[in-house]
Amino acid sequence: MRNKILFGLVAVGLLGGFLSAYVSSAVPKAPPPVFSPAPDPFFNGVYANGIVESYQGHGNNTNIYPYVAGPVTKIYAHEGEQIAEGAPLLEIDDSVQRATTEQLHAQAEAARAQLAELHAEPRKENLAVYAAQVELADANLATSKSDYEKQAASYRIDPRSVSKQALDSAANAVKAAAASLDVAKRQYELTKAGAWSYDIQNQQAQVESLEQAYRSSQALLDRYTVRAPRSGVVLQIQTAVGSYASPTGVYDPYTQQQDPIVVMGDAPGMLAVRCYIDEILIPRFPDPSRLVAKMFVRGTNISIPLEFVRVQPYVSPKIELSNERTEKVDLRVLPVVFRFTPPAGTAIYPGQLVDVYVADRATAVTLPPGVKPTR
Q1: Cβ distance 54 to 61 under 8 Å?
Q2: Looking at residue 323, which CATH number applies to its domain?
Q3: Lowest-pLDDT range of 53-57, 99-103, 200-204, 283-287
């Protein structure tokens, strides 16, 4: 009886082991994918990674860097806002530059007032003073002459009445009075003539120099307000009030590099796709006049036909798809730009990664959905 129970337990254990092995070895049925991977819609399509950008016929997005350095004090715009050319985007602390500008303005005003003073000469009050000095010198000369004549007459009558030294002193006094009168008259004429032309020219040059310095300082002061260089949409603002901005941009601690403080694109509507053809696929890239392309939005089953815009005819090092040309790789790629109009109800934004297939329209065969190409 005891052996029967033991053999029964062994049989149950073996049966449980076989059942557990069967269950664990069974392959579970894979769940259906949330979205289908981007298929090649053409029989002979060429694949390329792509990144969505705001469409603009002149090139890339507009990266804005400040002309001056300093902490940001105000931010006027916000991301996604459509602004006009010349609208203020942000402001950098300008306290030092503003004080310098005001000082130069005061110096220019002082120099301009001095120039006006030179043009206004002679001042009538100064002219009256010098005229009075001429009259005084003339009276002194008359007094000296009268005194000399009296002493000379007395000397002629009786040489002993006037000493020779007194007579010579009287004669010298006449000469001195005559010289003083001449100086007074010359000073009067000099004052009456007004400012010297060379003094006016020199002061005029100083005024122009200070005004130019003031205008230059004012122009630099205006640079502390960063303005939109063109009309468009603010795609990205990579700074905040209190952050330090410089002409090299702002430091991004995540990418560890300098980024533009503001990125602008064209008005919403049409978007662009910049895709990168690997150098090994360039020989298969079709002629742009016969090119057909389609874009697949990652994470969805959405596909959108693309319109060819241009090829950037320079094969450059491959980049990581973040608009930053810092990835260290050996592969080189050919940038190609397409454009498209987002379908209604579809959310697509600049910076989004997409899959792109291109083919020659003359030889491309569009495959039905779910059909894989056989080569």
Answers
A1: yes
A2: 2.40.30.170
A3: 53-57
Which residue range is the domain that position 147 belongs to? 102-217
Q: Which residue do the tokens 């009287």 mark?
A: 170
Structure tokens at 186: 């010359």
pTM for this one?
A: 0.63
What tens digit of pLDDT does each residue of 312-340 get?
888 888 765 444 455 555 578 999 999 99
Task: Supply φ then ψ for residue 258, to 5 degrees.
Answer: -85, 130
Q: Which of 369 and 180 is assigned the larger pLDDT?
A: 180
Mean pLDDT over each residue of the chain, to the nearest integer: 84
- Tokens describing residue 22: 């069967």
Alpha carbon dihedral 82, 337, 276, 372, in 10-degree steps, equals 110
pLDDT of residue 59: 66
pLDDT of residue 27: 63
Identify whether residues 155 and 213 lie together within a single domain: yes
Q: What is the mean pLDDT of residues 122-133?
A: 89
User: Residues of 305-320 as b/e, b for ≥16 C-beta within 10 angstroms?
Assistant: ebebeeeeeeeeebbe
Distance CA 257, CA 326 (A): 9
Q: Which of 265, 270, 310, 313 is nearest to 288 (CA)?
A: 310
* DSSP per-residue letters across 80-93: T-EE-TT-EEEEE-
User: Is 78 within 8 Å of 240 (Cβ atoms)?
Assistant: no
Total number of domains in the chain: 3
